[in-house]
Amino acid sequence: MALYGNDIDDRHTVLEADLGWIVKLGKGEFIGREALARQKAEGVRRKLVGFEMVGRGIARSHYPIVKGGKAIGEVTSGSPAPWLGKNIGLGYVTAEHAAVGTEFEVMIRNSPVLAKVVPTPFYKRPR
Q: What domains sit in the chain, N to C, each tagged with a CATH number?
């Protein structure tokens, strides 16, 4: 679940946060509708993704996300997930690095630690 103030805020749109399903652009006027319609037509430049740490480390809010030494985003939240047996996180990355399976590094205390994009939600209850 996205946490307001960390994973979602007034600097990111619902489309970037993968919450476009809560906005109905065809249901009339509202503040920000024009900007969202334009962004939907042009495509988002960054996306909120779930990731799991492949290397040893815990991603924390505001840690840089890099690929090939170049900054591609920022961690918004991260934590151990004991029920999954791994460390997980959310972060905004450039759209071209948002596909499930994409690997990148999270800079933890100035050291790159390998992580990869995974589908969200991280856990689904058995039916």
A: 46-118 (2.40.30.110)
